[in-house]
Amino acid sequence: MKSYPKITDINKCEDEPIHLIPNVQQFGCLLVLDYKDTIIQCSNNTIDILNIASQELLGTKIDKHISLDLKNTSGNNPIITTCNTIPILINVHEYESYVILDIEQLSDTDWDQFQFQQYMINSLNNLSNCNNLTDLSNNITQTTKDLFDYDRVMLYKFDEHWNGQIIAETKEEHLTSWLGINYPATDIPANARQLFLKQGVRVISNVEETNAALTPTVNCVTNSLTDISKSHFRAASPFHIEYLKNMKVSATLTCAIVNDDKLWGLIACHNYSAKSLSFQKRQACLLYSKMISNQISIKQSNFYLQKINNHSTVRLKLVENMSEKWDLIKGLTQHNVTGLNLLESDSFIIAYNDTIYNLGNTLEQTILKKLIKELEQLTKQSDYFISNNISEDINWLKTYSKDISGVMYFRISKKSNESVLWIRKEKIDTKIWGGNLDKINIEKETNSRLSPRKSFEKWSQNVKHTALKWEAHEVSAAKALVNDIKNIIVTKFSEVNKLNKQLRNLNQELESFSYSVSHDLRGPLRGIDGFANILKEDYFDVLDDFGKESVETIINSAEKMNSLMDDILSYSGLSKVDKIDDYHNLNNIISDVLKDNDLLKNNPKTNITINPNLPEIFGDKMMIYQLISNLITNAFKYSSKVENPKIEIDYYNDGEKNIYFVKDNGIGFKPEYSKKIFGVFMRLTNKDYSGTGVGLAIAQRIVYRHSGDIWAESQLNKGAKFNFYFGQNEKRIKG
Fold first, then answer.
1. How crowded is the C-beta side of 512, counted as CA atoms within 13 Å?
2. CA separation (Å) from 128 to 125, 133, 140, 216, 297?
3. First to last CA, the chain
4. What is the pLDDT of residue 593?
5. Which of 435, 432, 453, 433 is nearest to 443 (CA)?
6. Tens digit of pLDDT for each residue in 512-524?
7. Cα 678 to Cα 78: distance, rounded to the nearest angstrom
8. CB burial of residue 691 (10 Å; 0-12, 13-18, 19+)
9. Is 394 helix (H, G, I), strand (E, B) or coil?
10. For 181-206, b where at least 16 C-beta lie within 10 A, e where not — what string?
11. Helix or strand run (H / E) with residue 530
12. C-alpha–C-alpha distance, residues 329 and 513, integer Å
């Protein structure tokens, strides 16, 4: 670049190469040397600083004019010397192929260095004693004003979008306060922020003064404009000067506040008359800004540590609650300390086991289900989603922004609908801007050039659909709790597996025992039944009535005992049977059951309705036959004594699977027995209805062997409905 570009549009300010501006301010002069110590460029104000015209300097060696040993000069330390008996101070800035000398006349001879040092020490102590960031900020602006005596001193803090806000201010009484005002990122563009970060302290001494140009403009070593970004005297962008003039500001001092190697904010000092600072005071300002940066870092760290400790205390209690009975839901929602206490939020929601639990501000289940489904889509590539303006990503939530504006969402497993989230309500934020945002950067001069705005009147903006921002310590606390939940799930899974293994072993022992007992009783039972029948055939006539009744009782009891042992053997043998899974026509199986058991012939009054298009069912045919047989015979049995017995066999689909049912209008049972009825030997009726109490237990076991479920719906004297389905993890059900 051989000439500085003419920027005509303020919207292009971020592209302006301000480090190459070929001008310097008048309170110092600048010399550019090659590595042979020859002066190849100089500012045209050397006559005012060194009493030597620029034409006399160009092309000559530096030591002809100034006693200077650059080879033994440390780059960080200034050089104090003389030129034409004028005391001067030189700062050396080395570049790859040239050296820049910043030269200014030595001043502040009446400056009491010891007194200033003591004041700096006292200031540091005062900063250390501040309890929070607000106190610290006010202390910073007051101390800076006392040290450097500018008319207005502001602490300017950047947000995540590089907009700035004045969070503290100390000023002359007659000036209008700017405290709390926000300024858009365009007011301090990225190129300027980058130079602040590098340079630390920046002084503009007089906006009305004409800058001193570099002569010649082009660096003969690089054949381009010289990078003077390290120079203390670098001139400001014409746009920035115009901006300051529009604000009626004559001189500025700006100090960068750096936190974690990022520009946190600025100390911005304005003066309404020309003002410059000597090198010593600029260095003091640089030191002071570093002290401030450290104190801000300490205050923020202490604040975050306190928050982290609070989060940890709540988290530990939640883990203790969840671990008590390995119950996530109860542990997070049903104790004095809940998931709502972990973060500052309005709602805490956990979705688990197909149920959504909501604490705090109660939201409609349909809205929560829809929200969680959308968040699942947004987190396909990650496990979490965080926003303080969720309607930007999920547009339909604008209708509900009063209750749902900020969302922190975490998946707790790969399964659908297993997650935790915290929700914040809308917090309408009224921001005060220094000028109307709708007009910023669009004010046109007569030559149609877009220029810095002239109006800095306070302008209010209401920010809607937005919640309080989620802070880093809150995100960390939420992530830690989600990891705790995952660990508990894994631990619980391990415990359940261990218990299941023990249960399987016990079941195997119980089945072996049941099979053995039932089998061993067969012989004695046959003997009892045989001898009782012999007594009946050969001696029945000689027995009195009591004897005859006793023989009949023995024979009937033996038959019941034999049926009971058949059922026990059937029940215990189910786990030993190898399943042969395939698709089977359920209508054909029902027809076989009815025919094999003569159910229609023996129950002519019963009206049975069967859906002729029942979907095929995937499983073991013999087990399915036994399941259907047990359910249908039960329906016939317990409806047989009502006036118009009816039985219905049909199915429905819940959106995921086919659910079959057998329904009757028989005697029914109380709803509280709907689970107990599947227990072994559980009978809820009197002797009017035959049975061993094992049939429904067998039915349940068959369904469980097919990874499904079975349940009953009933009311006393109003019939019963038995529903079942087979699990889809075996094979996808047709239908």
1. 6
2. 5, 11, 11, 50, 11
3. 75
4. 87
5. 453
6. 555 555 556 656 6
7. 94
8. middle
9. coil
10. bbbbebbbbebbbebbeebbbbbbbb
11. helix 472-539
12. 39
pTM of the shown model: 0.60
Residue-wise pLDDT tens digits, 198-237: 888 999 999 999 999 999 999 999 999 999 999 999 999 8
* pLDDT beneath 70, residues of the chain: 1-2, 4-15, 72-75, 108-111, 416, 428-463, 490-527, 529, 531, 538-539, 556-580, 679-694, 728-735
Q: Shortest CA distance to 344 belongs to which of 260, 470, 432? A: 470
Neighbours of 715 (CB within 10 A): 11
In three-state secondary structure terms, 635 is: helix
Strands (E), 260-300: 262-271
| C-alpha neighbours within 13 Å on the C-beta side of residue 559 | 10
What residues are paired with 450 via a beta bridge? 9, 444
- For residues 395 and 713, give the distance between their C-alpha atoms in angstroms, rounded to a whole number: 42
Residue found by looking up tokens 């929601």 in the block = 349
Token reading at 248:
């009626």
Tokens matching residue 177: 């306060």
- Whether cis (ω within 30° of 0) applies to the bond prior to 216 is yes
Find tokens 């075996």 and name the residue: 730
CA 245 – CA 627 distance, rounded (Å): 92
SS3 424: strand
Show Cβ contacts of residue 291 under 8 Å, excluding neighbours closer than 6 positions.
Answer: 120, 123, 124, 127
Q: How far is Cα 39 from Cα 498, in angstroms, rounded to an integer?
A: 85
d(CA 137, CA 697): 75
Q: Name the DSSP class of 176.
A: P
d(CA 480, CA 477): 5
Q: What share of the chain is helix, strand, coil (3-state, %, to 5)?
A: 40, 20, 35
CB 83 within 8 A of CB 52: yes
**Angle of the 113-128 helix axis to the 133-148 helix axis, nearest 10:** 170
Please name the amino acid found at residue 340.
L
User: What is the rounded CA–CA span in Å between residue 558 and residue 534?
Assistant: 14
